[in-house]
Design a protein that fits this description.
By secondary structure, this protein is α/β, with parallel strands linked by helices. The protein contains 13 helices and eight strands. The structure holds zinc ion. The site of zinc ion has 6 residues, from loops. This is 2,3-bisphosphoglycerate-independent phosphoglycerate mutase.
Amino acid sequence: MLSAWASWRVCEHRSVANRMNYSVLELWILLMRSEPRCYQLPTFCVVLVMLLASSGQVARAAEPEGAAKHVIVIGVDGLAPFGISSANTPALDRLCEQGASTMHARAVMPTSSSSNWASMIMGAGPEQHGITSNEWERNRFEIAPVVKGSEGIYPTMFSAVRKGLPTSAIGVFHDWGGFGRLVESESCDLVVDADGPVDAIDRSTEFWNSRNPSLLFIHLDHVDHAGHAEGWGSPDYVQAVQLADRLINQVVTVVEKTGHKSDTVVIVTSDHGGVDKGHGGSTMAEIEIPWIAWGAGIRTGVELKKPVNTYDTAATVLRLLDVPAPACWVGRPVTEALSQSKQSEDDAAPSEPVAVE
Ligand SMILES: [Zn+2]
């Protein structure tokens, strides 16, 4: 009877042991064979405790190394890929060399600021979130959002992180006043309308030092100003890109100096490019944006070949922080940029990308 019960337990535990630790199972079988029957039940109890203990070890060992605890997104308004290539940008160059990047990520149409900042943080396009132009206000819109979250707007990554990590710190520092209306301020600890790019960086790094946020968003507006004033690609524009690079370096340096290089991801991207002294139209110069990720759980030295859309940024942020994405989002994590530990079984690409000329 005892032997029949023991053999059933062997069957039941074999599948568990397959997943966990063969050596413990083998040890148990050895003991069962060698010991007198009267010791088998106590032996089983001892081995069961060892199995449970080993399953704990396996679970701990399976935790991804270098998981991100903090994500910083730096959005540089109007930063076109050709702006980076024509400027001296040692900080961005380093992030590309040590991270995963593409200079062919896509904004959404229209290539206006509100539509694109919204898409970046809302994991979806204007068709879903309804922010179709800079004229949009919470009480003035042409298309209603398909889903209303808190504060009556389409859910952003800020409310998603608040929901998934209720005690985490979340901060938003924006240099363009209009950015504030796109964010559920009640989901954030601090939303600051900064006074210029240097102030935005100074105040966001202060927040980093004092609160160690899970999610920090920094918006810089001065590159877009230079584009509108003197033209995209003009000497002033290039100078503005170089200032952005120095400010980005300031953020990366703070991350490193505070000992968070191993658990932080920095993403640098833009809302749109530009042509002549404007944007909003449908040219490649306006719709192509840089997308650079660097840090914990990000592959190094990878030039991304698969398509990246601005609304994939929010989905990537949530994946990095292990927070579930709202079901209404259409963006997907940029898995090509992620190390194996941040990949999911659901990420299998349906097909190889098709080159477009
Ligand atoms: Zn813009």
